[in-house]
Amino acid sequence: MTMTFFSPIEPAASLPYRPNSGCSNCRLRGACLPRRLSDPEVVSLNGCIDTRVRLEKHEVLFTQHDTHDAIFAVRSGSLKTQWAAPNRAAQVTGIHIPGDLLGFSGLFESRHGMTATALESTEVCVIRLNALDALTSQFPQIQSHLRGFMSSEMVRLQKLLAQTRLRSEQRIAIFFLDMAKRYAALGYSAERFALRMTFSDIASLLGMTLATVSRLITALRRDDVIAIEAKQIEILDNAALEAIASGMDEPACLVS
């Protein structure tokens, strides 16, 4: 598969006004920004959105070791991040959905620590670091918000590492429950949501083999715990999924 790189859309400031084109009208405002910002403060953020970038499936937003000069807010669609060590296959480290910020892995070394690739048609807002520095000086609550986001990202990675000690069926159940929780936080259904990752991506993220992921998902579908149709995940039995995640329930079909 040939990877292609994004082409910038026009700078936001040069675009004609459209509803939902700026931070003040964006439905994801509460996810990307501190909720206590006033409307005038949010309007001032529009000038910091240097570019909006549209990616098609498989297009790359940034690659590992690229110069780091911006962070990115996912406006629509989804991306995966991957980390690659020399002579080893790239490992999926996260999936990023609307409202997520990404690009923090390069803050300390001025180089991106991962590669970000679109899983579907995706649009992101580009926030240049020099503009962000000026903004956080003006609005300290934004700096606090970004610190909180970086902290939550570190906790997420620590949990992902800790989960490698759990049984495979627990890890897959926790993954589906976590995705449901993230979509619910955006106001979407927690029972039915889109998941553009392949089984191979899920296996890489959770540290399992593709065969194991396929077997576990097949078993969950057969037991009517989840349903999958056209990349749509539907949680049919949340209680059963919670029980599997906690280790309290171990259906025979999952360990056969």
UniProtKB/TrEMBL annotation:
<dbReference type="InterPro" id="IPR050397">
    <property type="entry name" value="Env_Response_Regulators"/>
</dbReference>
<dbReference type="InterPro" id="IPR036390">
    <property type="entry name" value="WH_DNA-bd_sf"/>
</dbReference>
<dbReference type="InterPro" id="IPR014710">
    <property type="entry name" value="RmlC-like_jellyroll"/>
</dbReference>
<feature type="domain" description="Cyclic nucleotide-binding">
    <location>
        <begin position="33"/>
        <end position="130"/>
    </location>
</feature>
<dbReference type="Pfam" id="PF00027">
    <property type="entry name" value="cNMP_binding"/>
</dbReference>
<feature type="domain" description="HTH crp-type">
    <location>
        <begin position="166"/>
        <end position="239"/>
    </location>
</feature>
<dbReference type="GO" id="GO:0003700">
    <property type="term" value="F:DNA-binding transcription factor activity"/>
</dbReference>
<dbReference type="GO" id="GO:0005829">
    <property type="term" value="C:cytosol"/>
</dbReference>
<dbReference type="InterPro" id="IPR000595">
    <property type="entry name" value="cNMP-bd_dom"/>
</dbReference>
<dbReference type="InterPro" id="IPR012318">
    <property type="entry name" value="HTH_CRP"/>
</dbReference>
<dbReference type="Pfam" id="PF13545">
    <property type="entry name" value="HTH_Crp_2"/>
</dbReference>
<keyword id="KW-0805">Transcription regulation</keyword>
<dbReference type="InterPro" id="IPR018490">
    <property type="entry name" value="cNMP-bd_dom_sf"/>
</dbReference>
<protein>
    <submittedName>
        <fullName>Transcriptional activator protein Anr</fullName>
    </submittedName>
</protein>
<dbReference type="InterPro" id="IPR036388">
    <property type="entry name" value="WH-like_DNA-bd_sf"/>
</dbReference>
<keyword id="KW-0238">DNA-binding</keyword>
<keyword id="KW-0804">Transcription</keyword>
<dbReference type="GO" id="GO:0003677">
    <property type="term" value="F:DNA binding"/>
</dbReference>
